[in-house]
Amino acid sequence: MKTVGPPRRDSPIEIVHFADPWGWWSWGLEPILQRLREVYGDNVQVTYKMGGEFENLKAWMQEYGVDERGTVNWILESVALTRMPVQPDYYFRCQVESSFPACIALKAAKLQSEYKAAKYFRRMMEAFGLKCLHATDNTLVKLGGEVGLDRDRLRKEMHSDAVEEAFEQDRQEMVRHHANFDALLIHDRLQTGESRSVCSAEGPNQVDHRGNAQDQQDHETGRNP
Questions:
Q1: Do 219 and 174 meet the contact criterion of CB atoms below 8 Å apart?
Q2: CB of 81 closer than 8 Å to CB of 182
Q3: Which of 136, 137, 113, 104 shows the shortest CA–CA distance to 222?
Q4: In what side-by-side order are the strands of the sheet with 44-50?
Q5: The dihedral sign for the CA sequence 195, 199, 204, 209
Q6: What separation in angstroms does the CA of 160 have from each of 27, 163, 224?
Q7: How many domains are there within the chain?
Q8: Is 224 within the bounds of a domain?
Q9: Which residues contact 75 (CB under 8 A, 6 or more apart)?
Q10: Where are the beta strands (DSSP E) in 10-123?
Q11: In a domain, 125, yes or no
Q12: Measured between alpha carbons, how far is 133 from 19 in angstroms, rounded to an integer?
């Protein structure tokens, strides 16, 4: 297998995934992104931007009219489509209340290293979706240390105003592009102007409210799955 190293900033193609470490679509898209890195190497740069799936899990579930069983069913639908298994009840096993802290932690990690931040993102998804570790700041810091991040710096910058602002900018950019959690935004840097298109994991014109950024614009708390 081809070794995938740190991304280059001068790659002709940038693929942006508006993601969330708690998002089942982000986990489902990982094999696609990994394959793109392996096949295209330095010709493609994968950029993770944090969309923030839910600020408050209970409020998010109430907004979409689902209970615990309904949420589990949504996750099972994604697993059936992407063939990337997770524990379907991991939200409840992990006792997560908000996905925002993990998103902010990822933004803080990027200040140290884009390469390590990408490893950290995957490590968080494995820890939550597969191992069902509890959603705490201590868990986030521990996982960062496991991929080589400075734990003390990560803990400090997770709570900085600058990092929270960077997270908010990502969320607003997701709204501007009408992007989805189950999609990839492709930017051809060789074009004279911006050339972007959206590729959905569900195929063209198959995105519903559970991954639609327009709903995030309508519901500014960003609680859509």
A1: no
A2: no
A3: 104
A4: 44-50, 13-19, 183-188, 196-200
A5: negative
A6: 27, 5, 25
A7: 1
A8: no
A9: 24, 86, 88, 89, 90
A10: 13-19, 44-50
A11: yes
A12: 19
Helix 161-176 with 100-110: angle, nearest 10 deg: 110
Q: Which residues of 107-122 are buried (b: 16+ CB within 10 A; e: fewer)?
A: bbbbbbbbebbbbbbb
Round to whole Å and give the CA distance between 53 and 59: 12
Q: Work out the widest C-alpha separation in the chain, in whole angstroms.
A: 49
What lies within 8 Å, CB to CB, of 12 at 6+ separation is: 43, 44, 188, 189, 190
Dump pLDDT digits (tens) for 18-38: 999 999 999 999 999 999 999
29 part of a folded domain: yes
Q: pLDDT, tens digit, for every residue of 110-155? A: 999 999 999 999 999 999 999 999 999 999 999 999 999 999 999 9
The CATH number linked to 96 is: 3.40.30.10
Helix (H, G, I), strand (E, B) or coil at 44: strand
Q: Which domain holds residue 81?
A: 13-218
Three state DSSP letters for 99-132:
CHHHHHHHHHHHCCCHHHHHHHHHHHHHHHHCCC
Asked if residue 3 is part of any domain, the answer here is no
**DSSP result, 153-203:** HHHHHTT-HHHHHHHHHHHHHHHHTT-BTTEEEEEETTSSS--EEEEETT-
For the question of whether the overall pTM of this predicted structure is more than 0.85, the answer is: no
Which amino acid, 91?
A: Y
Place of tokens 């997270």: 167
Coil, strand or helix: which one is 18? Answer: strand
